[in-house]
Amino acid sequence: EGQFQFVVWAGFREESYRLSGRIQGKTHIDDFILYLKRGEDHFVTNRPALLYHGMHETVELKPDEKKVVWIDLKRITNNIRIIARDLNPELNHTIQIVDDNGAYDAFGNFANDDTIIYVPQYTSEQENDAPLIADFTVMKLATGRSPYLRIVDERGTVRYNENLIGKLIGQNPAINFEYDHDFVIEISFSGYVPVSIKINGWEIIVEEM
Question: Is 170 helix (H, G, I), strand (E, B) or coil?
Fold first, then answer.
């Protein structure tokens, strides 16, 4: 009996996520936060598990009443493959995605969070003329936000640092972040300057440096 509101985090796994502390009868729904786990250095070294969010408006139940509640789910996680071609073959490189999207309130909105650094799985190492291929799973993406794609050489020098949404993924007009969650970004370089960029096969215009 009483009023109930339903929040669903489908796919929640303790190795990837944690929930803020909750006290029955005291914790307000506005204080309910989900966090992506990260190291003390803010690096996310384990790819986040597939995660969906859903919520239902308040439902009032009478004594002994049963009611079926249907909850629509929206995907939170995204898969991004980076293919970087023609990097300096004399140096090793790592690829990172930097964002502050690791916390969400009960409504599935972004909550305040520190900057985190996503570390990928490499499916192809940089050898000879082979491209460097890195696979990421990152949290929610949205127009107007400013995550960055970063390429760093073995000396710690940042060789490429670009707005992942404003200058890369968002340049493909067919992409809708509500429904699209798998992205392939192909970048060819000349002296660390991009000369060709494709987003899910769509070639975008490279601004002259």
Answer: helix
φ/ψ of 30, rounded to 5, equals: -70, -15
Backbone angles phi, psi at 110, to 5 degrees: -60, 135
Structure tokens at 145: 């936000």
- What are the pLDDT tens digits along the chain (209 aa)? 678 888 999 999 999 999 987 767 667 787 889 999 999 999 999 999 999 999 988 888 888 888 888 999 999 999 999 999 999 999 999 999 999 999 999 999 999 999 999 999 998 666 667 899 999 999 999 999 999 999 999 999 999 999 999 999 999 999 999 999 999 999 999 999 999 999 999 999 877 64
Q: Radius of gyration (Cα) for the chain, nearest Å?
A: 20
Dihedral, CA of residue 171, residue 46, residue 93 and residue 133, to nearest 10:
-60
> Taking the model in full, what pTM does it have?
0.91
**Integer CA distances (angstroms), 183 to 15, 19, 169, 170, in order:** 24, 28, 8, 11
